[in-house]
Amino acid sequence: MARNEQLIRQHKLLQILERSRFGRTLNEMRGDLVDELGLTSLHTRSVRRDLEALQTAGIDVDSHETGRGKVWKLGPNFRGTQRITASVTELLALSLGRDLLYPLSGTPFWIGIESFWSKIRESMPEAVWQHYEKLRQILYVRGTPAKTYRKQEGVIKTINRAIQQHRVVQAEYQRPGEPGPRQRKIEPYGVVVHQSSLYIVAAACEINDGPERIRQFKLDRFRKAEALDEYFKLPVDFHLHQYLGESIGVFSGGKPKNFRIRISGYAATWVQEDPWHPEQEVEVHQDGSITLKVRAAHDLEILPRVLALGPEAELLAPKSSRQAIIKTIAELSKKYRD
Description:
The chain is α+β, with helices and mostly antiparallel strands. The protein contains twelve helices and twelve strands.
């Protein structure tokens, strides 16, 4: 049993009570905890002790008899301290962020977004809400992929729980081009949102050491996931933000390389309008062209961007990456020759 299991249960209990306007019975809360935390067993006595611990901590949780039995709910003092206020501008910003995160539909993160948005809606005076809705008509979000993670809802719940509890995950993982899914055991460290897709940063259990041990697994490729009764220790020198810090996209873990790309004056404006990396360097030439200097951990973060610019861009360095793009261009030329 994980030492922080009781703390996790209590935190989840608060979430369950917050979204339940009419309260929950002990049996109902036990069922919620088993379902949402993926527990194999849980007694109602443990649920009662967790509720009493919350009360001892000063959280306003009370109980009363109803037609369906004794129910527990958050008291008025708790709700009063959690009152939410927002200006029209803040509502606009939140609603735009909600639209941008729609591809996360089906994940616990989206459930949290919707729950928070509902609380805001209930807290807003009608006049403020009407003013917000009027202004929202002139703002529209486009460009988000037409995808959701509803099919992977169970998978992401399992992995998210395993991250919190430091549990090893047994997964069926289907890589592109392979005839069927492979069995993988991973130690999940964190979740990354990249271009509206979710990636799991995890250590591959079959690799004992070295930079290749930590990898990025795309959530779309998980077919099944099971949290095992095996626990791991997060490396003391691992920090997710630092690990991905020098990466343009989601690729990381290897030694970053210095890329130099010559871009014509015609395409230079596009690159300057939409930078590839916050720390990129741009050298401007007299003819309007530029040389872009950027660090990245993987060729796949750079080569597709260079190819997308066609003849307007030339990869100058490193040599190995230049050879890779020459090979790609030769294969494309052969394919389109006829």
